[in-house]
Q: What sequence folds into this?
């Protein structure tokens, strides 16, 4: 590839570049916690750091940076003198090396935007975590992390064999320029067949008609129903706060069976109940229910791999209902409506469909216009994203927890993202620090909501208790 070649990004990928500001850096993250092997040598982590630094020749697109020019012309160009030290960092936590110290460091790292003149990713090795553990934090620009999370990138490090020592970091795995640059997708958007364009236009028109017919329907996105303005819908700055929680799958499954629901219903109940309690403490709970935006990844029928065609659906968390059983029943109904909406999403011409459907979101990010756009949702919740089904290892170190950290946009100060790993659900909360300075309380209240729901259904805890 010509060193001076500038590669045009696909439009849906480029929008993440367009929406990026100092206050809203558009990168996603992954936080993984590992247990050091029981018989590891004293210099295990230093050796791991040197091993990762040895991969100092990244391939496309991991050797690219933003090309100079207007943000709306999002292009890549190759970095002439790549320095691995700019992208791989080694940290040591202060004692006692608890979750609080780790959370502070990762919150600070996740607040810092990726540099415009360097490759659009970083990886941080963090030692000193209590109980003979260490952590890895990965940060990558949303335009490169196709799909809902960046977890698949970290998976390139890991394997199911604890004795495996050779790994292949994601920045050594190439995409061909014509696949990753979006040229093919860019052309297809502007010159796709009449049938696909007609399907997309018809679908958008039908969604708009539904919005007019049902202005209060939670799943309506083009003309959303009334979403209450809340603390979460204020302007935010670039500072972030991170909090985590972990639940046992079996514990949630038993509760779901007792409540005649499913694990995702229980998860949404925990989110809604925790938020209700949190905002009631500050006398800031809206009289109408908080609305969650739920991202759904779309694919054309012939498309393989992750996609940045992500449609947003709206889900009522029923936070206005005080009775726990009534709230859970209402959430079960909301989730059923959401599943029906997902089934009706298109599988043809998804790029123009997604772009048009997301116009209200793009408009809400504009400096002046954004203040006039009514809130589309109060927060984002990913739903449950599948991770490894069994234990995986990094050069003998067992992965114990896996969290996905998201972007935040203006007027939406909280994202809750959930990864299933083995027999656990790993919940990460990414919040705007100045809006939610005590973010960890929401994670704690999710645990208490689970305890209370088990008492309501007279269940005995046999799963993980956080």
A:
């Amino acid at each position: 590839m010509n060193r001076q070649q500038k590669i045009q990004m696909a439009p849906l990928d480029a929008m993440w570049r367009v929406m990026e500001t100092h206050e809203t850096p558009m990168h996603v993250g992954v936080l993984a916690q590992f247990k050091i092997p029981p018989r590891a040598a004293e210099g295990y982590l230093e050796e791991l750091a040197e091993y990762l630094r040895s991969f100092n020749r990244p391939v496309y697109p991991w050797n690219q940076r933003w090309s100079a020019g207007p943000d709306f012309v999002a292009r890549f160009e190759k970095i002439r003198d790549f320095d691995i030290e700019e992208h791989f960092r080694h940290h040591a936590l202060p004692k006692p090396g608890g979750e609080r110290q780790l959370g502070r460091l990762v919150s600070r790292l996740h607040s810092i935007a990726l540099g415009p003149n360097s490759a659009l990713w970083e990886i941080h090795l963090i030692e000193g975590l209590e109980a003979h553990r260490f952590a890895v934090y990965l940060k990558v620009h949303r335009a490169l992390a196709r799909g809902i999370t960046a977890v698949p990138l970290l998976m390139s490090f890991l394997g199911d064999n604890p004795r495996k020592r050779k790994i292949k970091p994601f920045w050594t795995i190439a995409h061909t320029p014509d696949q990753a640059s979006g040229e093919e997708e860019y052309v297809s958007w502007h010159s796709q067949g009449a049938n696909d364009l007609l399907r997309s236009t018809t679908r958008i028109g039908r969604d708009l008609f539904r919005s007019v017919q049902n202005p209060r329907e939670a799943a309506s996105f083009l003309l959303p129903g009334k979403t209450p303005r809340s603390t979460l819908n204020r302007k935010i700055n670039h500072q972030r706060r991170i909090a985590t929680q972990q639940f046992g799958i079996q514990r949630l499954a038993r509760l779901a069976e007792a409540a005649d629901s499913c694990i995702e219903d229980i998860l949404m109940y925990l989110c809604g109940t925790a938020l209700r309690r949190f905002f009631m403490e500050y006398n800031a709970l809206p009289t109408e229910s908080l609305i969650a935006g739920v991202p759904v990844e779309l694919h054309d029928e012939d498309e393989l791999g992750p996609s940045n065609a992500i449609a947003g659906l709206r889900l009522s968390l029923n936070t206005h209902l005080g009775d726990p059983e009534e709230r859970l029943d209402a959430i079960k109904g909301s989730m059923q409506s959401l599943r029906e909406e997902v089934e009706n999403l298109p599988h043809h011409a998804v790029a123009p469909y997604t772009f048009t459907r997301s116009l209200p979101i793009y408009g809400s990010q504009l400096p002046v216009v954004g203040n006039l756009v009514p809130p589309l949702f109060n927060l984002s919740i990913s739903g449950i994203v599948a991770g490894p089904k069994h234990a995986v290892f990094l050069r003998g170190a067992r992965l114990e927890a896996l969290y996905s950290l998201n972007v935040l946009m203006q007027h939406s100060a909280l994202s809750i993202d959930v990864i299933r790993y083995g027999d656990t659900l790993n919940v990460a909360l990414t919040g705007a620090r100045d809006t939610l300075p005590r973010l960890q309380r929401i994670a704690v209240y999710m645990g208490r909501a689970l305890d209370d729901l088990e008492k309501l259904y007279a269940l005995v805890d046999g799963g993980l208790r956080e």
In short: The mean pLDDT is 82. The radius of gyration is 22 Å.
